[in-house]
Amino acid sequence: RLLIIDFGSQVTQLIARRLRELNVYCEIHPYQNVTMDFVRQFAPKAVIFSGGPDSVTREGSPRVPQEIFDYGVPILGICYGQQVMMHQLGGTVLSGHGTAEFGRAYVTPSDERIDLLGGWFLENKEQVWMSHGDHVSVIAPGFKVYGTSPNAPFAITADLDRHFYAVQFHPEVHHTPNGKTLYENFVRIAGFAGDWTMGAYREQMVEKIRTDVGDKKVICALSGGVDSSVAAALIHEAIGDQLTCVFVDHGLLRKNEAQEVVGMFRDNMNLQVIHADETELFLGELEGQSDPETKRKIIGKLFIDVFQKYADGIEGAEFLAQGTLYPDVIESVSFSGGPSVTIKSHHNVGGLPEKMGLKLIEPLRELFKDEVRALGRELGLPDSFIGRHPFPGPGLAIRCPGEITRNKLNILREADAIYLDQIRKHGLYDDIWQAFVAILPVRTVGVMGDGRTYDYACALRAVTSVDGMTADYYPFSHEFLGETATRIINEVKGINRCTYDITSKPPGTIEWE
Ligand code: XMP
C-alpha cells in the first residue's frame, strides 16, 4: 500500500482518486500523525508528499520525519511536498517576490528521459497546473532536473538512485491532462501490481465500520438517492440490525417513490427502515407559501425536526451515518464562509445538524460519484437504482412554482411518470443528467374534443451536466417531444399544454426554484 502524507492541499484527495483509478490502495494521513513509528507500522511500498498552503521557509512549518528518506521506498513530492523534500535533503527554497505561479504552465523536458516520464513529452511539452507561492532555487544533492517551466526551473526533479521524485506542479488535477500517466509510472516503479479494486474498498470499509461502531447503534436518513442508499447498504453489511434507517416522506416525492425505496431496502435487502410519513405536517406548513426560499427553508427545518423526532425514538443510537462524498468535503472546506452569494438554500439529507450530538460515520467521504456507483454495484444494488438521476431534497416542491396544492402535486406526479417512461422507452435515460416536469402556476385555454379546457401548463426539463454546476438542455428530437407532449396531455387530467425548457445553466438553474 501507499502512504500519502497530507500537508493540507485542497486537492490531496484527488491523488488518492488517481491511485484508486490505477487500482492501487492508498491512505491519506495528515503530516502531524506521521511519525517514523507510524511509517514503520504502516509499511508503505511508496510514499507521496502532498501539496499544502504553508511555506517551508516559515519556521515551524510542516515537515516529514527525516528518517523517512532512509526508509528505502520511492517517494514522490508534489508542490509543497517537493519543497519539503528539497529543504530536508539540503536544497534551498525561496519565497517572496516573483516566485509565485498559478494556473496553466508548460513544462519542457531535459535531454535525458526517465521512467517516471514514460508517455510524457511526446510533443516536447506538457501542460501542467501550477499553484505555488515558493519555489526551489537550489536542488538537493543527488537530484537532477528533468523538466522546466518558465517560472519553475525545477519543475521536475529526481534522484534516480534513491527513487525520489519531486514535481512543482499538481499532476493529480484535471488541468494536468497527462498527470495520471505520471502516477502510473510512479506506482509501476514502486512495484505495485494494480490489483486493488472497489471490492477491496468494500471489505476494508466494512472492517473499519465494525471497529468504529463496536456494539453501538447507528441511524441514517435514507433518501433513496444513490449516496445515502450506498452508505446504508455498506453499513448494513458491516453491522446488520445495529443500523436503522429513517425515510422521511415529506409528501413531495415522485409517483410510487416511497413504496419503491422502502420496499427495496426493507423487503429486498432486509434493512430496518422506518417510513416516516409526514405528508400532512409538511403540506400543512407549506400551505399558502409561494416564495421559493420560504418553501425551501420550511422543508429543510421540518426535515430536521422530523428526523430528530424519529432518531430520539431509537434508543442508544450513538452514530449518524451520512452519504457525504468527496466533492461535498471539498466544497464545504473551500467555500464555506466565502464571498459567494446564496442562489438557493440547499436542503438535503446530508445536512443534518451537529447539535444532534451524534458521532458521524461517512463511509463515502473519500469517493467520487462514479466510485460510489461502482461500490453500489459491488454491494448488489440494482443498476436501475444506481444510475438514477439526482433528486433534490425539497422534492417536487421546487418543481411546483407558486403555491403547492395536493391537486397540483398529483398532476405533476402523473406527468413526470409519463415523461420518464418516455425517456426510458427511447433509451435516453442514461444520456441525461436529470429530467423532470415542472407544473406551472398558470392555467391556459385549450380545446379537446369539442370542448373548452382550462387547465395547467407544464414544462419538461432535461439537462446534460457533469456536476450540476453548469448544464445544457438536452437536444431531444422533435418527434420525441411531440409524442411525449401528446401523451401527457391525453393521459393526465389537469394538463392541457406542454412546453420544453431550453434554458442552459447559467443563466437558468436546473430546477425551477
Ligand atoms: P440547481 O437548480 O441549483 O440544481 O441548478 C443543481 C442540482 O442540485 C439539485 N438541487 C438540490 N439537491 N437539495 C438537494 O439535495 C436541494 O435543496 C437542491 N436544490 C437543487 C438539483 O436537482 C440539481 O441536480
TrEMBL record:
PANTHER family: GMP SYNTHASE [GLUTAMINE-HYDROLYZING], GMP SYNTHASE-RELATED
Gene3D superfamilies: 3.30.300.10, 3.40.50.880, HUPs
SUPFAM superfamilies (UniProt xref): Adenine nucleotide alpha hydrolases-like, Class I glutamine amidotransferase-like, GMP synthetase C-terminal dimerisation domain
Name of the protein: GMP synthase [glutamine-hydrolyzing]
Broad EC category: ligase
Pfam families, A to Z: GATase, GMP_synt_C, NAD_synthase
Binding site for ATP: S223, G224, G225, V226, D227, S228, S229
Domain GMPS ATP-PPase: 196-388
